[in-house]
Design brief:
Largest sheet: 4 strands, mixed
Number of helices: 8
Radius of gyration: 17 Å
Structural class: alpha+beta
Helix content: 40-55%
CATH class of the largest domain: Mainly Alpha
CATH architecture of the largest domain: Up-down Bundle
Strand order of the largest sheet: 2-1-3-4
Strand content: 5-15%
Distance between the termini: 36 Å
Shape: globular
Order of helices and strands: EHEHEEHHHHHH
Bound molecules: glutathione
Number of domains: 2
Number of strands: 4
């Protein structure tokens, strides 16, 4: 019998993106919790799996894959019949565009905010950096707000991996009060998380680890 895939995850992190993919695809996987709060990601055993000490990691047989967007692409290609990555090259290129837009233009400012508000030692945090990152995010998310006007999904007429990666990132933005000026994206995100196989939202995932 083929070994189940393993997802190394911690509930309220970018591992949500991969869990969402696996749940939508109906893949039976083994969840391995790596407790970031307890510092388990810095344990030598975990560093052998991901030398960057970060989550998520997907293990599928011989393949050990990091980077949530790369894992999403891998899973969509492994299960092509589910149509999460369009067959048409132009449509597929639009999926790549929005994945990269999300990872670079949206996620990076959110990550800078997280680092300068809670992750860096207090003495290294810069409030000016937080203000700049918020501005950068607001400028770029306006592009996506205009894009989703009259659209159900980010690309084409069916759900793709861009939707799972974007919706999680928008939930993150919402957590830090950055989606208030984006009614279309708020509505889009609510619709995405109303899907039957959607994962926990970030706030609920935090609550689950503190329970
Ligand atoms: N670009 C990576 C980022 C991974 C990442 O930074 N994960 C965070 C959790 S959301 C983490 O493991 N942080 C631990 C650390 O930075 O020490 C991805 O998308 O997978």
């Amino acid at each position: 019998m083929e070994k189940k895939m393993q997802l190394y995850e911690f509930a309220p992190t970018r591992s949500i993106r991969v869990r969402w993919m696996l749940q939508e695809l109906g893949v039976d996987f083994e969840a391995v919790t790596v407790n970031l709060v307890a510092g388990e990601h810095r344990h030598p055993d975990f560093l052998k799996i991901n030398p960057a000490g970060k989550l998520p990691v997907l293990v599928d047989g011989d393949l050990v894959l990091t980077e949530s967007a790369a894992i999403a692409i891998y899973l969509a290609e492994k299960y092509p019949h589910q149509g999460l990555l369009p067959a048409d090259i132009q449509q597929r290129s639009q999926v790549y565009r929005w994945l990269l837009f999300t990872a670079t233009e949206l996620e990076q400012p959110l990550w800078r905010i997280a680092r300068h508000t809670s992750l860096y030692p207090e003495s290294l945090r810069l409030s000016a950096e937080v203000a700049l990152a918020r501005k950068d995010f607001v400028n770029m998310v306006a592009v996506m707000e205009a894009h989703v006007q009259d659209r159900q999904f980010i690309v084409g007429n069916t759900v793709t991996i861009a939707d799972f990666v974007c919706a999680y990132t928008l939930d993150w933005a919402n957590e830090v009060g950055l989606l208030d000026g984006c009614p279309q994206l708020l509505w889009y995100m609510e619709r995405m998380y109303a899907r039957p196989n959607a994962p926990l939202r970030i706030a609920a995932a935090f609550a689950s680890i503190n329970a």
